[in-house]
Structure formats: C-alpha cells, structure tokens
Write a structure and sequence with these properties.
Blueprint (H helix, E strand, L loop, with lengths): L11 H4 L4 H19 L3 H13 L5 H13 L3 H14 L4 H13 L11 H11 L3 H25 L4 H30 L1 E5 L3 E5 L8 E6 L3 E8 L2 E5 L5 E5 L3 E3 L1
Antiparallel strand pairs: 1-4, 1-7, 2-3, 4-5, 5-6
Length: 253
C-alpha cells in the first residue's frame, strides 16, 4: 500500500545555492508545509511545498512530500506527477517507488505491461539503473584517472604493465561513462513524458475541438509527448495510440 510518510529533513544542501534571503524563506516554507501536513492541512501543505518549488529548489524529498500532500488532497494526477519527478531524481528510493506504484494502481486507466523478452527488459533496466549524477561521476573519475596517469607517466617515465593496466581501466571508465551519459541525456531530451491532470481528457485526431475523438484518458495517465502545436499537444499512449489534447490538461514530467 501507499506509504504515508513525510521527509522532514531540511533540504539545506539544495538551498545553499540560493541567496541567504531566499534560502531562509524556503527553509521556513518547507518547515511550515511539514507542520501543515502533520496537522492534517494537506491543501495548505501542498501550497507551501509549491512555493518552495517556485523558489527554484529541485529535491527528491521535497517532490515526494508534495506528491503525498497532493494524494491526501485528492489530486491523484498531481500526486503521480510529483512522485514521477521525485523518482527521476532518486530512482532507487523505496518509499518513492512504493507510493508511485500504489498511485498508478488506484488510477482509473490501467498501465500496459512492457513488451519484450526477459533479456531486453533486463538490458533496459540496466540502462536506466544509474542516475545521470552517477554517470557524470563515473565519467569525471575516468578523466581524472586518465590524465593523472598520463601526467605520472610523463613525469616519471613509467611504462611497466601495472601502469598500462590502470590506464586501460581509466580509459574504459571514460568511454563507458561518457557513452552512457550521452545516450541518457539524448534519451531524456527526446523522450518527454507527461501526466494527465484533468479528471477526463479527450484526445482528438487533430489540434482542434471539432476534430474526431480518438480516445479518452483519465487523471494520472502517463503519456509520451510527440510535439506541440499552439495550445495542443500530440501525445501517445503506451499502446501506441496517439491523439491531440489541450496543453492545460497534461503536465510534462
């Protein structure tokens, strides 16, 4: 079931990038939101968490708390949106994964199981397992080791086997880390997903209310964004079916 938990730890490490006044205000709002949530004022907590978000803070704990406040306020679509955003920043957090899974289970539209055999599904999971921060760290370590060893080689004129082995490892880290990071950044930029926020969303054959109705989806449904045209967005369901919806009915993750 859904884990009704709230991350109450202060998000100081994220807020230090802001100026002192904004940091103090954001910490105060975050604490106020936590107090409101504990007191059962979920709508008030939601508004306070959103103010922290508007100040420029991006933190998985903040997004997780905002998802919980939305869920408690009866805003299932927004809850799934913020759980998805929290999961994007911290994909292996058990509480986030559990609440996101539960929210998807209680929404009206059922998800289509992923296609593919066990091998392809395993490779897909492995591709998305490391976060962008972890891949960036892997790439940085590879570059540091590579240039450090090359500098050591030039300075001490070493060419023995251990040095060559260490150099090969660093080169491998650099290539693998850089390659995976590049593919992930490209995938993230090209594969934009969105969540339906309106209770009922009608998708049409073209970007106009007079176009033919293609399908209906409900609050919390996750779709892939294809392109935007004015006040309309072409989206595609997991089963491949596509249609145009109004921009105010969905929100990109």
């Amino acid at each position: 079931g859904k884990k009704d938990m709230m991350r109450s730890a202060l998000i100081i490490l994220v807020l230090v990038v802001l100026d002192a006044g904004a940091q103090s205000a954001s910490v105060g709002l975050f604490n106020e939101a936590n107090d409101r949530y504990r007191g059962g004022d979920f709508e008030g907590a939601r508004r306070a968490y959103l103010q922290v978000v508007d100040s420029g803070v991006e933190d998985a704990r903040l997004f997780y708390n905002l998802g919980n406040a939305n869920f408690k306020s009866g805003r299932l679509g927004e809850a799934i949106l913020w759980y998805e955003r929290a999961n994007h920043l911290s994909p292996r957090d058990e509480d986030i994964v559990a609440n996101l899974r539960f929210a998807h289970q209680v929404k009206k539209d059922r998800d289509v199981p992923a296609d593919g055999n066990a091998v392809s599904l395993f490779l897909t999971d492995a591709f998305f397992y490391p976060t962008l921060s972890e891949l960036s760290l892997l790439l940085a370590l590879g570059w540091i080791g590579l240039f450090g060893l090359l500098g050591w080689r030039v300075w001490f004129h070493r060419t023995h086997a251990p040095w060559l082995g260490a150099l090969s490892v660093c080169a491998l880290l650099t290539v693998v880390g850089g390659g995976l990071l590049s593919f992930r950044v490209y995938h993230q930029a090209s594969e934009v997903s969105a969540i339906a926020l309106a209770e009922v969303v009608t998708a049409r054959s073209g970007p106009d209310v007079n176009q033919t109705e293609v399908f209906i989806m409900h609050e919390g449904t996750k779709v892939r964004v294809v392109r935007r045209e004015g006040d309309w967005i072409l989206v595609r369901l997991q089963n491949g079916l596509g249609g145009w919806v109004r921009v105010d009915q969905v929100e990109p993750i």
